[in-house]
Amino acid sequence: MLYGYTARTNDYDNDKRAKDMRRRHLSRSLPRFVALAFRDGYTLASRGVLCWAPIPRKGIIPRARVRFVAVEAVFTAIFYAAFKTTYDTAWTDFVPFDIDDVKWDPLCSHSPLMEGVLGDMELGEAQLEEIHRLRLARQKQNSIAFEKRERAKDLTGWLKKKAAQKYISAANNKVNVKISHDKTVAKIKSNKKHACDPCNQVFASSRAIKNHLTSKKHFNKVNGVRKAPTANALRGRKHARKAKANKKHFCALCNHSATGPARLAIHQTTKKHLAKVAALAKAI
Predict the structure, then answer these.
(1) How far apart are CA 66 and CA 46, in angstroms?
(2) Domain extents for the chain?
(3) Which residue has the higher pLDDT, 149 or 40?
């Protein structure tokens, strides 16, 4: 399938299924008896796969499907997942347990071998790749045409809908969105496209540098204006000088005087202090 495991198992999601049932429909990809069980109120305790592989390239998909159908048929027979048929006798020598020992009821009406395989086996790999390329191009054209029609009908409604879709997508993929955002920001900053040389700062967008250029900080830097310290700042500096002079919070090893216990604790975690502690321990 196009989106792999996620697309194959989404139909078994309890929340999605409950939403579908409120709309009075269930996915067609669900086995018929599984869908009936869901409608009777059963829920899924867990889900997983017994066999998996990377999604194959488009040119070999029909042949790859044959293999997966064969594997699925083997598992269906081994675990008695389908209702009893005349073909069951062919598996007697291969199944590790008797059907009378099975404690579950089958939820498939037939073997996957009866479904057939989608795709043209007579076409070569290059032909299948070209068909896929043309299909994607056609889908893109149809999508663009559909969006143009929707915009023409109701531009405001269309913009709200796209914004909501973007928000939901970002909320469901926070990690990927952050990774993508960080890469974009790093690339823009490395190119120094939005840079302020006087302030020696690089910004990630035109809006950010525009806001910076109109800020008081930038104005003061360009015009050489130095901000006068406040009364609180002057009192703080005076207190810091007095605390250092008293050496109440002092590190004799580094000959470092801190302004308070918190600052001393921070100093004791620095690389410089830890290196001196290690050197002293080694000497002892």
Answers:
(1) 27
(2) 4-123, 124-172, 186-222, 246-283
(3) 149
Give the count of beta carbons closer than 10 Å to the beta carbon of residue 265. 11
Long-range CB contacts for residues 39-46, cutoff 8 Å, separation at least 24: 43/14, 44/12, 44/14
Fill in the amino acid letter for 141: Q
φ, ψ dihedrals at 257, nearest 5°: -105, 120
pLDDT of amino acid 143: 92
Find, among 65, 63, 95, 62, the residue nearest to 80 by Cα: 95
Give how far the C-alpha of residue 103 lies from the chain's centroid of Cα atoms, to the nearest Å: 38
Q: How far apart are CA 2 and CA 56, in angstroms?
A: 10
Measured CA to CA in angstroms, residue 156 lies from 50, 144, 153, 162, 167 at distances of 47, 18, 9, 10, 17
pLDDT band, very low/low/confident/very high, at 133 (cuts 50, 70, 90)? very high
Distant-in-sequence, close-in-space partners of 147: CB < 8 Å, separation ≥ 6: 158
* Cα–Cα distance measured from residue 84 to residue 106, given in angstroms and rounded to the nearest whole number: 9
Mean pLDDT of 149-178: 89
Minimum mean pLDDT among 75-89, 153-167, 184-198: which range? 75-89
The pLDDT value recorded for residue 1 is 44
Question: How far apart are alpha carbons 66 and 63 in whole angstroms?
Answer: 5
E strand or H helix at 246: helix 231-246
Q: How is residue 82 written in tokens?
A: 């389908």
Pairwise CA distance, residues 257 & 240, whole Å: 10
Q: Exposed e or buried b for every residue in 232-254, given b needs 16+ CB within 10 A? A: eeeeeeeeeeebbeeeebebeee
